[in-house]
Amino acid sequence: MEVYFKDKRFRLNPAGDFLARLVVICAYIVLAVATVVFLMAPQTKLFFVGLLLALFLLDRAYHAKKGERTLFELQRQNRANLALALTPTASRALAYARRRSTVTNQDFHLVLLWVLLERRDVRETLKRLEADIGDLKGKLEGLLSQGNGETDLQATVADFVLRAYQVAVDSNESYIECRSLFGALFSVADPRVRSLFDAANISTEDASTAVIFGRFRRRFSRLRSVPATIGGFVYASRFLRHRTMNRAWTARPTPNLDQFGIDLTDLARREKIGLLIGHEKEFNGLLDVVARPGKPNALLVGEPGSGKSTLIAHLAFRMIKDDVPPVLFDKRLVSLDVAGLLAGAAAEVLAGRLRLIAEEIVTAGNVVLFLPNVHDWFKTADKGGLNAIDLILPVIRDAGIPVVAETYPREFKAYVEPRTDFLEQFDVVRVDEIAEEDAVRVLIYESLLLEKANRTFITFGAVKAAVDLAHRYFSQKLLPGSATDLLKQTIAALADMRRKAVTGSDVTALAEKLSRIPIQRAGQVEARELLGLETTIHKKLIDQEAAVSAVSRALREYRAGLKRKGGPIASFLFVGPTGVGKTELAKILAEVQFGDRGALSRFDMTEFQEKSSLERFIGAPDGSRPGVLTDAVREKPYQLVLLDEFEKASPDILNLFLQVFDDGRLTDSLGRTVDFTNTIIIATSNANSDYIKSEIEKGKKVAEIADEIKDKLTSVFKPELLNRFSDIIVFRELTPSELALVAGLMMQELAEALKESNGMTLVFDEASLKGLVQIGWSPVFGARPLRGAIEEKVRSVLAEKILREEVKRGDRIQLSFQNGEFKFS
What predicted TM-score, i.e. pTM, was given to this entire model? Predict the structure, then answer.
């Protein structure tokens, strides 16, 4: 189709344009006066002329806000003049901008924006986008005062209308509205217009999506009651007319099916909105299957909240509109739930009911059968008894009866997949979580209903934040349900504070509170803590500067918003001799950053050495066992994951982390994606410990052999795995003086525990710390023997003294080291 813009009014000079508008206004005034005079005239002929004029004026008034042709009508033509699709308000806005630009030599696009800012729907869109309209208008007036208008204004207007046409088509508008003109401003090449929107922090995508608010707000405001759902059905049977007969009167009544089933096409006739957003691929796949000859049976498999019910609801809606393939014309979509059939029924009664229903479906010939939660049909048999699915299987095998069933991935593997005689009758249609951009559109419609129900105002920023944060941090539930829940919780929280406007920052604040994840930009207090993170960690960990600096840098980048896209916050491989603080640093980091030493998921990889241990890690294929790693991160997305003795894991498990380190995601055994982008992953390794031990015994320092240690890692790990770590850090051995400091930290922990549990004060001096180091120092095993020395020489002795009542609450115990022995006084 060739499109162009041609309107004689836009070729007139300002004086001619004013004269033309004056003539039109005068003509309507004359027609209105003539109509009144003729209607009051006693002559019959004049009365009917007045009646015709009145009908003409009423028609013009009815179409006053519409264009002469709809976009759909224009698209059926070979050549289309877009001027015919402009609404009168849009046409007047363009005409005024052209006139003013001609007279004042100001930029046409800037003048048009100034005009549109006076429009209520555009102002509401900007308000939804949390833009400062006053500030935007002030900067706009400053740019207008600079002049610099276009030389070929006619071509500029024609080009802009073409852009507005594309915006209107993309938005499924009937006409080119003022909001279409506003959307088109984002596509013009004028840098001054772009700078205004950038300063207001408005993106093209946000503006085009936020326009939906203005487009549907009035339509939703006319609803007398708030619908129970957007995309599904309003399950209410009041005043519902039940239709079992098709239009050709060839169907048969189905009393038993009607008793135990729900006619979804009946409900579709009462549906208030009938909305399907996203899932186009899944719906087209469903439609192709149920409309084909042979085996017209589809099995929808998806997690709760993925949209299976919405697809079924939309199928019923399309069926009543005859917007389906001919084979589905004039048919009923009936849901048959096994729970109702089982109510108070013995096995023989259930069998009788199912046989009658099966006969009715076959005889009626106009039924599309829907089996929700089809896995429940497999659970009906007693030991050795008849399964309900066997009774309905003849109906499923009938090529003339389309059947749609739905189930969940776990139940699909446990119940459906083993029954090949049942599964081979179906084509499986996987229903995944909808995309974030589709969820935003769904939530906009939900927001309009929530505004009406709660008498509040919801900005587009709140909608976008709810979808983004729910998808990232509340992935236990799928979009859009998780985003709707988060938005509702925010509205409820603000209602307690007597606030009526919901913004993006409100949603973010609540999400941060619920998830305990730092989402908002770091405040002054947190910024100071992040900048001094090394000092904080060193209060609990002695030395290991390289490791402490690396993890501190990673956390600062994350909270400053500079973390790379994809991948976890950071992933480290800690290598080096045993007992030098590799695991201890992970625990300290969990305490400092995540608030608790227990705020980490620790996995001893020696337990995952067998090939079969992969099932423990990500879950069993049949869904019988959850994955310990995937479930831990799904339930708590912001945490530290510690993989101790990483080199001992099965090669299959090591391969899993290629994807985790690279993309920050992992798919479990049920096909669910787990997000690792808010985790820190620390893998510790004692790889090449024999080499490290022998070199240390030769008197070499770890720093001297650090490069050799890294090079030798390729004999244990694949190079592509090593390359995906954020950093590989070699921990050096601890000197006796550093071990004395470690001993001080350990003794301080013991002193605090003694004070808390028994009310006693433990005091120790430097000599006692040196004595502990003397007993517990090993250049090969680091600080591990030191803990054993404290257990043997201090903790166990104190325990005996407490039990013998040699010390009591309130005592001050002095530990000293004299002549190679520890003394308590």
Answer: 0.79
